[in-house]
């Protein structure tokens, strides 16, 4: 009878250990998936920031070049001025989009935190 009781306790402990390990494994897998998603999101944001900086610098260079040429010749360089305005506007739009993505995007690891909250309840 003692063997059955100790076997019962050992089986219960094994099942409890296996359940805990399975739960931990699931949480680690969720964390790994979210880490990958956050890595891709960060790379995407850096790419957009790079594009915005490139357009912004091109716009500033075009604007400075336009001003220099305008002051040098005082002629019709409206096309070059328009290009500078378009480049700067593109930069502003991209920065606005990146800012919105940062502010309105999901918080990092939200699914993992939600699963831990469920576990606590």
Protein architecture, described:
With 121 residues, the chain is mainly alpha-helical. The longest helix has 72 residues, at 2-73. 91% of the residues lie in helices and 0% in strands.
Secondary-structure map:
Layout: H1 2-73, H2 78-104, H3 110-120
Helix pairs in contact: 1-2, 1-3
Task: Describe this protein with a few key phrases.
0% strand; rod-shaped; 121 residues; 3 helices; mainly alpha
What is the gist of this entry?
With 121 residues, the chain is mainly α. The chain has helices at residues 2-73, 78-104, 110-120. It is rod-shaped and about 95 Å long.
Total strands: 0
The separation of the N and C termini measures 37 Å
Largest sheet: none
* Rg, Å, rounded: 29 Å
Number of H/I helices: 3
Coarse shape: rod-shaped
Decide which structural class fits the backbone: mainly alpha
Give the mean pLDDT: 81
């Amino acid at each position: 009878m003692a063997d059955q009781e100790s076997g019962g306790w050992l089986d219960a402990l094994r099942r409890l250990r296996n359940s805990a390990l399975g739960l931990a494994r699931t949480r680690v897998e969720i964390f790994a998936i979210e880490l990958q998603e956050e890595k891709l999101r960060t790379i995407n944001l850096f790419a957009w920031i790079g594009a915005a900086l490139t357009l912004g610098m091109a716009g500033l260079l075009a604007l400075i070049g336009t001003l220099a040429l305008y002051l040098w010749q005082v002629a019709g360089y409206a096309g070059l001025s328009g290009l500078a305005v378009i480049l700067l506007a593109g930069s502003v739009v991209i920065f606005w989009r990146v800012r919105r993505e940062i502010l309105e995007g999901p918080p990092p690891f939200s699914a993992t935190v939600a699963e831990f909250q469920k576990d606590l309840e």
